[in-house]
């Protein structure tokens, strides 16, 4: 493909389709870390939900049952993580990494045991979520600019895509304009002061972890039921860590975190689009360099913003109630 065939419009559409994986995971991490719990296990919960959603969806030929099963499993893992990190005061970093390693291997073993296809599930076929065509999309498709934005950029996505973008203002409202959000921020900043004010710190953190588990499961379900149509070993491909990077980029704020997710989604789409493109002067860019783009961006973001980002003050610190 020549440089003249390079289409920026298709990159924008791909960005919208790539972003939900990161948005769901980043919002999950936001709830956990705003409560004071470091959630390195986003990757593992995504993999678990992706496998269970694909397996149950294929078996029942019903994507919604698959999503429901993925939510249940991811929520159970989040509660286990909460038990280790909150109740037992365990090391949150070690717990998260251990879950990631365990679930990476377990999902592969279970997929091989049940389906015998090299650690992947069969193609879901009709069990995938269908796309939604917005009203009037076909009628305005020919209108310059506006028609393309409505019929191609905004229309033609699955319900999970629309849910991901609707989640951004919803999470902002919950965090900043509800009693639960106030308590969540309080236990993440100063749990002892929150406890003195009558807030149940452990219960609030468990509720945050449960919320994180549910949201993270939607990220995994999106990977297998929407994007790929099957489960494949380690198909999360570091998206859980990219979601954490988006949290740092967004300074643990929902809107800015979502912008970080869109940025990473854009570079992931750009990576696919420029593969095989022959550029003037430099020619074709090697595929290995193209695959490095999202990770190089991650390093640059962390190097540039880590010192400026202000994490919740009590993050990573087990709460021990004062006597």
TrEMBL record:
Main location group: membrane
Membrane topology label: Multi-pass membrane protein
GO cellular component: plasma membrane
InterPro entries attached to this UniProt entry: ABC_transp_permease
Transmembrane segments: 6-28, 64-86, 93-115, 127-150, 159-176, 206-232, 253-272, 292-311
Location of the protein in the cell: Cell membrane
The entry's keywords: Cell membrane, Membrane, Transmembrane, Transmembrane helix
GO MF entries: transmembrane transporter activity
Coiled-coil residue windows: none
PANTHER family the UniProt entry points to: GUANOSINE ABC TRANSPORTER PERMEASE PROTEIN NUPQ (PTHR43370:SF1), SUGAR ABC TRANSPORTER INTEGRAL MEMBRANE PROTEIN-RELATED (PTHR43370)
Name of protein: ABC transporter permease
């Amino acid at each position: 493909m020549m440089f003249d065939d390079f289409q920026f419009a298709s990159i924008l559409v791909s960005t919208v389709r790539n972003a939900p994986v990161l948005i769901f995971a980043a919002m999950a991490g936001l709830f956990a870390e705003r409560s004071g719990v470091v959630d390195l296990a986003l990757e593992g919960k995504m993999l678990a939900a992706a496998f269970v959603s694909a397996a149950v969806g294929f078996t029942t030929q019903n994507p919604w049952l698959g999503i429901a099963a993925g939510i249940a499993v991811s929520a159970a893992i989040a509660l286990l993580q909460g038990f280790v990190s909150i109740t037992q005061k365990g090391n949150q970093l070690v717990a998260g990494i251990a879950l990631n390693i365990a679930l990476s291997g377990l999902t592969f073993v279970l997929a091989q045991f049940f389906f015998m296809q090299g650690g992947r599930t069969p193609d879901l076929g009709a069990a995938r979520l269908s796309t939604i065509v917005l009203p009037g999309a076909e009628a305005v498709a020919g209108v310059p600019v506006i028609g393309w934005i409505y019929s191609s950029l905004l229309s033609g996505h699955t319900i999970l895509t629309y849910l991901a973008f609707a989640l951004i203002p919803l999470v902002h409202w919950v965090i900043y304009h509800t009693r639960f959000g106030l308590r969540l921020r309080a236990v993440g900043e100063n749990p002892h002061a929150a406890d003195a004010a009558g807030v149940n710190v452990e219960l609030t953190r468990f509720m945050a972890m449960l919320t994180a588990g549910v949201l993270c499961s939607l990220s995994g379900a999106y990977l297998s039921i929407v994007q790929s149509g099957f489960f494949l070993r380690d198909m999360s491909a570091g998206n859980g860590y990219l979601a954490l990077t988006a949290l740092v980029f967004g300074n643990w704020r929902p809107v800015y975190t979502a912008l970080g997710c869109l940025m990473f989604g854009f570079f992931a789409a750009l990576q696919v689009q420029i593969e095989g493109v022959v550029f003037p002067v430099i020619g074709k860019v090697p595929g290995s360099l193209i695959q490095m783009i999202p990770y190089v961006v991650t390093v640059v973001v962390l190097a540039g913003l880590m010192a400026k980002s202000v994490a919740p003050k009590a993050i990573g610190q087990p709460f021990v109630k004062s006597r």
